[in-house]
Amino acid sequence: MAATAETREQVDEATGDYKYGFVTEIESDFAPKGLNEDIVRFISEKKGEPQWMLDWRLKAYRAWLKMTEPQWAMLDIPPIDYQDAYYYAAPKQQGDGPKSLDEVDPELLRTYEKLGIPLEEQKVLAGVEGAPKVAVDAVFDSVSVATTFRAELEKAGVIFMSISEAIREYPDLVRKYLGSVVPIRDNFFACLNSAVFSDGTFVYIPEGVRCPMELSTYFRINAENTGQFERTLIVADAGSYVSYLEGCTAPQRDENQLHAAVVELVALDDAEIKYSTVQNWYPGDKDGKGGIYNFVTKRGLCKGKRSKISWTQVETGSAITWKYPSCVLQGDESVGEFYSVAVTNNRQQADTGTKMIHQGRNTRSRIISKGISAGRSNNTYRGLVRVQAGASGVRNFTQCDSLLMGDQCGAHTVPYIESRNPGAQIEHEATTSKISEDQMFYCLQRGLDEEAAVEMVVNGFAKEVMQQLPMEFAVEAQKLLGISLEGSVG
Amino acid sequence: MADSPFDDAFAGLGGASAQRRAAYDRFRSLGLPSRRQEDWKYTDLAGLDRARLAPAATGPAVSAPVAGLDGPLLVLTNGRVDADASRMGDLPAGLEIVTDGEPASTGADNALAALNAAFAPQAVHVRVADGAAIDRPLQLLYRVTDADACAAHVRVRVALGARAALTLVERFEGDASAYWQNQVLDVAGETGSTLIHALFQAEGPRSVHSGLTRVALAGGARYRRFDLQTGAEIARNEVHVAATEAGAHADIRVAQMARAGQSLDTRSYLDHRVADTTSDQGARAVVDAQGRTAFQGKVHVARDAQRTDAQQQSKAILLDETAEANTKPELEIYADDVVCAHGATVGQLDAAALFYLVQRGLPLAEAKALLIEAFVADLFGDLDDDTLRDAFVAAAQVWFGKEPS
């Protein structure tokens, strides 16, 4: 079925103009442009960090100088000038920082409001009987400006704060786990992050505690030319459970913006971490101008027996996505899961997938990846399932499906399967297809218009992943899929 | 450029032609592949340039063609045509075999092919005339003996005319010397032609084997490869198929059986360049103690290569705690109206089936052998030639020490 000119126009309307592309005018307290040891010291000093943290950063910076960018991804990345960016930008504030929401720059609050982020709305949410509570640690250009629900969380013993605060308040905990899952030298971008991370989130769930609410952080890149280097560390102690939501949007820019985040998860015996992401950063315009460069290292360590880490991601934004949320299944009988929907349109490029490293006995993993390519984009699933020699009784199931919309895009699959144990049972399936004429005919013939039909088929295609999202995210994610793909059917 | 250990060997050729010089320069600029290259992740050739590089001398002929097959037989011993051991009289009408001393082409971007072009003493040209269906298989036997620290580079070109048909049987073997055999096979299939390609890689236990097959298929041409890898200490095979016109079809069937110290790696590249072409790949691996296999199967669908149908199945069985199987079924797709799928499994022998056989009185070792045989034989099931099919099963049986039945 050929797309009509009208449909094409609608696509352009829907995707060409970024819905959330506006700039909030707030003064930023910049570090000078560029990167050197002084900048690293500046960042550390601005945050009032202890010496060990500064040493850690400097060690990372010196290691980073000797590293080169990875080239193996199926991405066409323009050369990045790391000296032509700001490595620290914080919203200006009076005194020691906001004591409550009232002290938060109203400009900020308005930004979140426009984005539909429930920083204000959460109070309403909290007032509704039986309504789920969502705590927000809002990251606005690198610095946490508001953390809510802390009191209730504290009652449960849950630590949920910006990582800068945690370094000051819980140095032993942070020091013990920071870099334990993603070592300083892990890769070029993680190493850069280790040197210059501006802020991020720290979560600690004590033994036996089921976190009373879903934790949520909204990321948003704002100041022009500011790289974002978030650092997230979540530790779930024995028998605990936490569900963490991460979502982000960014204002429209012509200049490419670099983002290199690191997320580390640690699950001890019988603990479970569920980490959900909706990523909707500015993807660049329809000619590929602008857009965020997203180089993320996310890794979870199932350290304890019977622990579980589950990654769910809906990736619709960014000009370039380089991201492989992974699980190291160290504890016996631990479980890793990866559910992903990645949508690329126009000139977007995504190279994303997961790694499941089976080290413990009877460990299990499940990978469901749905890639949707439209426009002139390229979408690659890259995954690794590795079974180490001692890991008997391992099970893995992988399914990665690609949906192509239009004849100018690309869909690629690069799975690595490496087994060193005869007891491991590994299954991998992959398919590539387009929305069939039969499906469209069926829907149209029942009175749906083309847009609605496509949205329905796409949501059906992505259903297995969308079902994994917490309620709070599911609606936004479905909306995003619709916005990203309306009328792209060819 | 730093000195390469190959320099002396190349100088030793004495008065090499401009073509060989160009090929050698090409190799020097590419360098020996290393595991740092993504495609070479599973094969380590690091030891190659320290040993095994002098051109192999002519050795005594030992001929062991595939049992039960009649038809013409061409033997290459240590890289050179061995007329005495060959059986080339009475070639079927339409089949022509010519040997010359000057391999063409530089090997493009493939380092081992470039080295082959620089060193191969001869090139064998097989031509099948338009419309000729050769009813007896052509056997090529590549044999290396007495060749410690030597390399045998063999180069073969097969050209099939329009609607021509040929069954080509290749067998690689050698003694216990530490040699390297490096083959480049180019196949050009004209419109409507069919090549059935049976390959037995049974090189000597201390050898390195590398093979590159490059196939170009015109409209409606078919290439069907049946490949059993059991020999060599290190084997690396690449199969590149370019489907250049509508209706072209390729079947790739490769079974790799590895045991102690063996590393067997096959990489395919199915390039669907135009609309309406098809491919089907099936790979099997059986890996015993301290063995390693890799199957890297790639399907590339070019922009506008609509209605491509490309299937791929890879299965591996590990027989021991120290065995390793790697699989990388890769898709790179730039057209939307395609059906491309791959499936991959890695596991062990089915415990229920094993139990069933043992419970019926079969010794455990025999039961295992039977299941492995079935697992491998399954791959060669759609080979029409009974003799060849039996030869594959027999070769698999030899691998696990059973007397061929």
TrEMBL record, chain A:
Superkingdom per UniProt: Bacteria
Name of this protein: Iron-regulated ABC transporter membrane component SufB
SUPFAM superfamilies documented for this protein: Stabilizer of iron transporter SufD
Domain SUF system FeS cluster assembly SufBD N-terminal, chain residue ranges per copy: 155-210
Source species: Rhodothalassium salexigens DSM 2132
BP GO annotations: iron-sulfur cluster assembly
Membrane spanning residue stretches: none
Taxonomy of the source species: Bacteria, Pseudomonadati, Pseudomonadota, Alphaproteobacteria, Rhodothalassiales
A Pfam family hit: SufBD_N
Domain SUF system FeS cluster assembly SufBD core: 219-461
UniProt cross-references to InterPro entries, sorted A to Z: Fe-S_cluster_assembly_SufBD (IPR055346), SUF_FeS_clus_asmbl_SufB (IPR010231), SUF_FeS_clus_asmbl_SufBD_core (IPR000825), SUF_FeS_clus_asmbl_SufBD_sf (IPR037284), SufBD_N (IPR045595)
Similarity annotation: Belongs to the iron-sulfur cluster assembly SufBD family.
From TrEMBL, chain B:
Example GO BP: iron-sulfur cluster assembly
Domain SUF system FeS cluster assembly SufBD core: 147-375
Pfam annotation, one family: SUFBD_core
InterPro entries: Fe-S_cluster_assembly_SufBD, SUF_FeS_clus_asmbl_SufBD_core, SUF_FeS_clus_asmbl_SufBD_sf, SUF_FeS_clus_asmbl_SufD
Domain of life: Bacteria
Protein name: Fe-S cluster assembly protein SufD
